[in-house]
């Protein structure tokens, strides 16, 4: 059955034979997972360019207000509709392409008996790209990892402006990082991770190549 990928192919005027891969029902960790997949595809197919599109429409889960069960309002308050796209490739053609980020590594390792634990190497990172799952989650990440408030500035901004846009969150936050880097001339390393006890998700390490006001 034709889906959103078919409609997007038509809108962009792409070849009907262009390779497409849909990832449904991935939830909040979908953004990190699809970036890892795109990295693998481009590194193993010389000259390939992968268009990554994350789209979330949470209105389909809407429940009317209830006088006896206020929990149904949580989803409407926290989550938001959003879509974002990015092109991933390797060996950029610098005459015609302007790379913004370098995706250095993407790891996904299972460690036994740690499904409720999160371990990350803090290192000397200037900014963190964290899934904007909610204010309480970000507060705990900041507290448990001993981060300065500035480290999560981009993530908190996305949460306050757009809410939790699930799989698109990581792309929203990366775009905020790009804007901050242009404004403040930072060249940060960024580690991205998503807290989830339901599914193992990749840890992504990337860095901004160079701020470009254009």
UniProtKB/TrEMBL annotation:
One of its GO terms (biological process) is flavonoid biosynthetic process. Pfam families: Chal_sti_synt_C (PF02797), Chal_sti_synt_N (PF00195). Keywords: Acyltransferase, Flavonoid biosynthesis, Membrane, Transferase, Transmembrane, Transmembrane helix. Signal peptide: none annotated. Residues 126-184 form the Chalcone/stilbene synthase C-terminal domain. InterPro entries: Chalcone/stilbene_synt_C, Chalcone/stilbene_synt_N, Chalcone/stilbene_synthase_AS, Polyketide_synthase_type-III, Thiolase-like. Pathway: Secondary metabolite biosynthesis; flavonoid biosynthesis. Belongs to the thiolase-like superfamily. Chalcone/stilbene synthases family. This is chalcone synthase. It comes from Capsicum annuum (Capsicum pepper).
